[in-house]
């Protein structure tokens, strides 16, 4: 169990190190030049290419709030599974909640780094931290969806099984009726030769 937990932490830190590295970070798209509306009457849709550092900080704070709400929803599901003594569902939800809590702790640290970058007007670092926070938010959303799919023991149990046997009267009867009603077929308990002296 300890090896499994250690392995999980190694994978989480490896993922975060990859995302934090220059190879894992996506370059910020260049700002698009303002284009006039097309003359053919169609509306052109452009998405905002980049948020300002202050907007990134505000969005990250909202994302952290949504992540904490997701954690409390999974926590309620876990409490209900424990109350029902559903071991399978409890283990599943506990694992998902642990991973969500790790992502939230990491997001809090990243928000502090983002605040520091905004204070220094370091746009590149702010973009980097915002990208990592976006990945963490998406991971929490995925874990929440997986937690909602945790199946408990009661889902696997359909109910009592009952077997009912009916004999088709159209089938020809066997030569020997079942159970045998001929008393000569049952001779009684055989005598044990080693039991008598």
Task: For this entry, give a set of tags.
single chain, 197 residues, mainly alpha, 5 helices
Protein model, in words:
The protein is mostly helical and 197 residues long. The chain has a domain at 53-154. The protein contains five helices and no strands. The chain has helices at residues 2-20, 53-83, 87-120, 123-148, 153-156. Helix 3 (87-120) runs antiparallel to helix 4. The longest helix is centred in the middle third of the chain and has 34 residues, at 87-120. The model is unreliable at 43-48 (pLDDT under 50).
Summarize the structure.
With 197 residues, the chain is mainly alpha-helical. The chain has a domain at 53-154. Helices cover 58% and strands 0% of the residues.
SSE layout and pairings?
Layout lengths: L1 H19 L32 H31 L3 H34 L2 H26 L4 H4 L41
Helix pairs in contact: 2-3, 2-4, 3-4
Order of helices and strands: HHHHH
Terminus-to-terminus distance: 64 Å
Helical content, roughly?
A: 55-70%
Unreliable residue stretches: 43-48
CA radius of gyration: 34 Å
Task: State the helix count.
Answer: 5
Whole-number mean pLDDT: 77
**Helix/sheet category:** mainly alpha
- How would you characterize the largest beta sheet? none
- Shape by Cα distribution: elongated
What proportion of the residues form beta strands (DSSP E)?
A: under 5%
Number of strands: 0
């Amino acid at each position: 169990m300890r090896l499994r937990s250690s392995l999980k932490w190694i994978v989480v830190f490896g993922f975060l190190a990859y995302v934090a590295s220059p190879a894992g970070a996506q370059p910020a798209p260049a700002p698009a030049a303002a284009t006039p509306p097309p003359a053919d009457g169609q509306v052109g849709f452009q998405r905002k290419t980049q948020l300002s550092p202050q907007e990134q900080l505000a969005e990250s704070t909202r994302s952290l709030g949504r992540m904490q709400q997701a954690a409390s929803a999974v926590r309620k599901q876990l409490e209900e599974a424990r109350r029902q003594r559903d071991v399978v569902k409890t283990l599943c939800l506990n694992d998902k909640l642990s991973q969500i809590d790790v992502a939230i702790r990491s997001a809090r640290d990243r928000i502090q780094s983002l605040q520091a970058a905004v204070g220094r007007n370091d746009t590149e670092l702010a973009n980097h931290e915002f990208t990592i926070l976006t990945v963490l938010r998406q991971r929490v959303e995925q874990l929440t969806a997986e937690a909602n799919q945790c199946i408990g023991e009661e889902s696997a149990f359909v109910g009592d099984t009952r077997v009912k046997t009916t004999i088709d009267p159209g089938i020809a009867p066997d030569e020997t009726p079942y159970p045998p009603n001929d008393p000569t077929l049952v001779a009684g308990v055989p005598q044990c030769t080693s039991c008598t002296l």
